[in-house]
Amino acid sequence: MIYALVLSFALLESVQPAPSHQQYTDKYGYFKGQRLPQLPIGSDGCYCPPIIRPVCGSTGAIVYTYMNECVLRCTEGVDLLYDGPCCASSVCLPYAAPVCDSENMIYRNPCAFEEAQCFSHRILSRHLSMDSSSPACACVESCTEEWSPVCDSTGKTHPNACVFRNAQCFLKERNQEQIEIAHEGQCCADVCQSTDSGSFSLCDSVGRSHSDLCSYYRARCEQRHAPPPSSSSSSSITIAHFGPCSSLSSHLSNSYLNSLLISFAARDEPKY
């Protein structure tokens, strides 16, 4: 999670005697937690004193704050992470810019830094300070809250090009990962939700059935942003009729109701 913190913890661990309980690390060798021996549970359950002295434990990827260590040890399969409530990242707005700490580590946004700061305090009893003048933050920009979305090469929608460049900066500095803008507008997976566009099935102009309007809108979006086809048949798909592509429903294509539904679908189509 935090390379500097993990290194510091590894150094501390190297000079301490081996613990009697088992330690758990992730695939990178970073500290994850300690599996404590479980307390015996009698016929009336495991009894713990009503003392509020919270500890943070995890079962896999799920972390949870327990009232005290006894309660944690009475729960099967839980790893003790650290004393105190679990560090949790707040939900930052999508426009929030990356920030850096005094050790030149970059974080996706201030909320991620606050979680790291909490982790540093819980594990190492050490204060982590923010310093966005660090070299790792040299490529970070201050962005407006303008909604002019772009879609990146991994299929993620960013509110505008400035926010994308900040994400690009973060991924390059933190993970040596490179992303590019795939196209302007939202990524096709984000243009609609099936629950927002009705559940009418329909047949498009190339004979494909769609379970609902959202599925059709996404297919239209993907066609618009796909590389130009080598053949001459490059016209956009349209709605042939509502109902699945079958001979039983083809009579709908000339009905007045079908024409009304098509006009409503065209009116409500999202911008790509």
From TrEMBL:
Matching Gene3D superfamilies: 3.30.60.30
Q: Does the keyword Disulfide bond apply?
A: yes
Has UniProt tagged this entry with the keyword Disulfide bond? Answer: yes
UniProt keyword list: Disulfide bond, Protease inhibitor, Serine protease inhibitor
* InterPro entries per the UniProt record, alphabetical: Kazal_dom (IPR002350), Kazal_dom_sf (IPR036058), Prot_Inhib_GrowthFact_Antg (IPR050653)
This one is known as: Uncharacterized protein
Organism equals Pristionchus pacificus (Parasitic nematode worm)
